[in-house]
Each structure stands twice: as C-alpha cells, then as structure tokens.
From TrEMBL:
One of its GO terms (cellular component) is cytosol. It catalyses: 4-(gamma-L-glutamylamino)butanoate + H2O = 4-aminobutanoate + L-glutamate. SUPFAM superfamilies: Class I glutamine amidotransferase-like. Keywords: Hydrolase. Belongs to the peptidase C26 family. This is gamma-glutamyl-gamma-aminobutyrate hydrolase. Pathway: Amine and polyamine degradation; putrescine degradation; 4-aminobutanoate from putrescine: step 4/4. One of its GO terms (molecular function) is gamma-glutamyl-gamma-aminobutyrate hydrolase activity.
Amino acid sequence: MPASSPLVAVPADIRDFANYRWHASPDTYLKALVGVAGTTPVIVPAMAGEIDLAAILERVDGVMTTGSASNVHPGRYGVAPSPSFEPYDPDRDDLTARLIEESVGRGLPLLAICRGHQELNVAFGGTLATEIQEIDGRMDHRAITHEDQRERYATRHDVAVADGGLLATIVGAGPIKVNSLHRQAIDRLGDGLRVEASAPDGTIEAVSVEGAKAFALGVQWHPEFWATSDAPSAAIFEAFGAACRAHRDARGRS
C-alpha cells in the first residue's frame, strides 16, 4: 500500500468578513505544500485555548507558519504597542507560539515564512524592529505598489547564505535572489537561533534552530510564491517535504 501524504499543520489567520469571523490561510502557501512539498495541509483554527492541540500535533508530520497582513503583537517581546506595528491578530499569536514551541520540542519539521519567521524569533526570546526602511543604512524591503501580484512578489535583492548552515545544504552556497517583502524584521536574535542568510543591509533574512531534532528553518522572504519556477524556492519546499516524509515514516515504524 502506498504511503499516505504527510500532514502539515498550518495556523489560521482571523479574518472578519460579511459579518462572519473566518479562520483562513493564504492560497499560495497551501498550493506550494501540495504541489511542491508533496504534503497535505491541515488548517488549524486560531483557537489555541479551546482545541486539543496536542491531538493535532500527534497526527501531523510537520508545521508551517505563513506570512500574513498582521504583525506579531509587540507585547509578546516587551515593546509598547504603536500604530506603526498594526494590524494585530492576537488569536494567531497564541496559536503560533504554541505550534512553534511544540513542533521544536517534539521534533516535528518546521518551516516558518515571513510573519512565521518573525514569530519563530519571538518564540525564542528575540525582538522585532518595525519600519526598518526608516532606519539609517537599511534598504526598503516593502512590496512595490502594483496591481499584478507577480510584480509585487518579484525577486528583487540578493541574500548571502551562511556557510555550513541548513539553508546552504538546501540552496547551495549562494548568494540567492529573494522576494523579501516586509517592514518589520528581526532586531535582537532569539536565543538558540542561527543566522542562515542576511540581506546586503545586514537584515537577518533566514534563521534555523540550533540543535533541533528535525528540520527547523525560518525565512523572511516568500518562497511559496515562486515554488514551481524558482530553483531556491522549490528546493526549500522540497527539503521541507522530505523532512515531513521522514517524520511520517519514522512515526509509522514506532
């Protein structure tokens, strides 16, 4: 009998639309999980205090935290709220904090993208800086204004890949060109995280978890958007999928 597709938990964002509250996840991430990683996404509702999260994590083979229009609430890393940090999604914050902690602790493969990359840093005690384009010496990492999403998500600058790290084993020595679209970024690096890639202005663009039991990578850019056509983007999802299949197979033998 063929092995089943690995299941990947994906945290939902909260969206209020047409007098309903929705638990939703962006389509591009889900398609990359299915079409490139070869996995089956399972959207987890942002109800961390009401659902049996342990039961979900016992059944899945990986966790992916996505980008979002919202930002991590600054109270989670000791900074006062400000309009420049908005909008927020505290229900997602609660869920992803649990998912990241549990996935690393359980040895579940973890891929953290954009907001998820920032959530990973905060989960390990790090902080974030906002409106980095206003900081002297920093590039403007924000998306351009354009009606075509392909233009908005086009790769625009290189990142240097750290020697000997997890990312280098996936994409090679680099540099690689990325579509890094953000106005927040890692400020103080979280304890136990390793820098895997940096932008020319020094912005930390990728991290891994030192000593992790399984694949644990965070990237500030958006590999999901070009996962079917850009080699480094595809390689990241393929590596994550392989890690999820390895976890599935090991779980089946236990």
